[in-house]
Amino acid sequence: xxxxxxxxxxxxxxxxxxxxxxxxxxxxxxxxxxxxxxxxxxxxxxxxxxxxxxxxxxxxxxxxxxxxxxxxxxxxxxxxxxxxxxxxxxxxxxxxxxxxxxxxxxxxxxxxxxxxxxxxxxxxxxxxxxxxxxxxxxxxxxxxxxxxxxxxxxxxxxxxxxxxxxxxxxxxxxxxxxxxxxxxxxxxxxxxxxxxxxxxxxxxxxxxxxxxxxxxxxxxxxxxxxxxxxxxxxxxxxxxxxxxxxxxxxxxxxxxxxxxxxxxxxxxxxxxxxxxxxxxxxxxxxxxxxxxxxxxxxxxxxxxxxxxxxxxxxxxxxxxxxxxxxxxxxxxxxxxxxxxxxxxxxxxxxxxxxxxxxxx
Length: 360
Description:
Layout: E1 2-7, H1 12-25, E2 29-35, E3 55-59, H2 65-74, E4 79-82, H3 89-94, H4 96-118, E5 130-136, H5 161-180, E6 184-189, E7 191-193, H6 202-211, E8 216-219, E9 225-230, H7 231-244, E10 250-253, E11 258-260, H8 261-275, E12 291-294, H9 309-315, H10 323-336, H11 338-346, H12 348-357
Parallel strand pairs: 1-2, 1-4, 2-3, 4-5, 5-6, 6-10, 7-9, 8-12
Antiparallel strand pairs: 9-11
C-alpha cells in the first residue's frame, strides 16, 4: 500500500485532494494528513473520511523539524504532496513574516526531512519516492490585459508578500532538484474554486454575502482577470503529475476559464437567482445592487492566465469543468452545507478542534 504524506490537508485544496484520492484509489493507498489547523484548516472538511483505517490526521506545524522528522521515521512515506501554505494576499500585506515562516521555512523543513528519509548512502534516492510542491500562478506576476499567458518558462515576478514567499519556496524546491537530484515536481495552478473554500476568498464570499443581503465588495474597477480552475480538476492534475510527470519538471495547471472579477460576481448573482426556488425568502436579498466598489488592493496584479500546454502534451491532463458548470456545482454544494458555512463564518469550527487537541 502506497503511503502519502499530505501537508495542509485540512485546507480547501488539500481536503478536496484527499477526497479525490480516496474516491479514485479507495483502500489501495494510505494518507497521513499533517495540518497545524490555522484559521484555514478545518477538519469538518474531512469528517466523512476521518474514521477510515487508511487515513491518519496529525496536528503538527511544518516548521517544526522534530515533529515532521518523527512522521518520516515512523512511517514509510512514498509520496509527499505539499499544500501547506499561508495563501491569502490581503493577510500577507498585513503580516508578511507569517508567510515567510510558513511558506519558505516550512518548505525547507519538508524538503530536508524528506531528503533525510529517502537518501541512500551513495547520494541517490530510494526508488518510487516523490515530492510534489503545490504552488501558484501568482509567482509569475501580472499579464497585459490583451494577451499572453504564463508558461513554465515565464520569469518569476511576484508582487505581493504572498507571491514572493511562494516564489521563494519554488526556488528552494528547484535548488534541491538541481543540487541533490531530489525527486520532486512543482505545479503552479490558477485560482481554485469549489467545495470547502474558506469564505474570505472571492467566490464563497460573494455567495455567502449575496444570500444574506450583504455588500459584495469589488476591488478597484472590478476588471482584474483571473483564470479559474475547479478544484477537482486540480486534484486530478496533481495525481497525474505524480504518476506520469518527469521528475524535476514544473507543470502549470490552468482552467481555461478567464473571467474579470466583476463578471464572476454577476455570474454568481444570476446563477443564485436561477437556482433558488421561487418561494425561497433569500431570492429577495440577492441583487446586483449589493455590488460595492472599494479601494484597490496594494500591488494588485491585473491579469493571470495559465497555458497548460505542457501538462496536456506530456501527461494528458486538461480541465474538464467549465466555469458555468463549476459555479453551479459549487453553489449547490454550499446550499447543501449551510451548517458548514455557519460554523466557519462564526468561528465555531476552530473552538471545537481547539478543545479536541488542547490536551494532545
